[in-house]
Amino acid sequence: MKDKKIAVLLSGGVDSSVVLYELVRQGLKPDCFYIKIGPEEEEEWDCSSEEDLEMATAVSHKYGCKLEVIDCHREYWDQVTKYTMDKVRAGLTPNPDVMCNRLIKFGAFHEKRGYDYDLIATGHYAQTEEEAIGNWLLDVGQEPRAKSQKLKWLCTSPDPVKDQTDFLAQIYDWQLEKALFPIGHMMKEEVREIAERERLAPAHRRDSQGICFLGKINYNDYIRRYLGEWPGDVIELETGKKIGQHKGHWFHTIGQRKGMGLGGGPWFVIKKDIEQNIIYVSHGYDPESAYKQDFPIHAFHSINGQLPPTDITLKIRHTPEYLPAKLEDLGDGRYMVHANAPIHGVAPGQFCVVYDAEHHRCYGSGEITI
Fold this sequence. Notes:
The chain has 370 residues and is α/β, with parallel strands linked by helices. 23% of the residues lie in helices and 32% in strands. The chain is built from seven helices and 17 strands.
């Protein structure tokens, strides 16, 4: 990689800081960038972006690398926020982190500065591998010679808890070509040990729990800022009895168990009537109606152009488990998923992320449409 120009996206956290350390340890001197995405009205939000930038600055200075702040504020609010609010208004369950990677970290940043670099390194827990797919003749002006053509794959991390391939399953092939994940082969404990050993400033920082890299902004506050509140009834599915009120169907998702504010729980969100703004819940532990085993997905996005096989594993949310299933090709990017066992909380709008049967290679993802 010594002949490559490398950009490192520093977030101010432990993971990206160790990324920089790893590259410098290999004798490289990348340029560092901090992507600034703050709230629209900062006085109204509790945001940690100032501390993040301080940490990113300290780490870049430690290794003698320059740090440049790239403002992607407008792109985030115009693209990722619009996507998110359009989905939740329609009663769907979007994932802004997924679109943030495609549209901002590997999208808007590339348009502003990343185009000038061969590789863009991030702190994602993911790996890549290349597969030779044959030879083609390269005419170099003299005698034609064979050149191996390679296919790049997005592959899972050995740390099942931290693996982030599900958040990367909507990126384009050209974005994957430039992606570099220097800590993707490590466990989180290893990364923290390196940060402590090397006395990196963010070594003891907790992992971000907010949306993408918007700091401490709560997801419901994020939605409330744009859609407000719309009080409606909470009804018990089996009896039709009103048992409470909610503040808007967009604050709740299918399969949700916590945060309902209802007594006598647990209660599970089973379905939503979007037009009437009604939330239907069921009382009891994991009721059968909260599970689905067969469901359709549409607009399947293949990361590198390779379509998935019949026998797969999948995720519908960020969990350590990969669920075995079979995939039925319906054509035009539509598939029917036949899971080996019922899955809890399958909700329209979620991304179904598809892996091979060994949950090693990630093929891409499609949106659940039930």
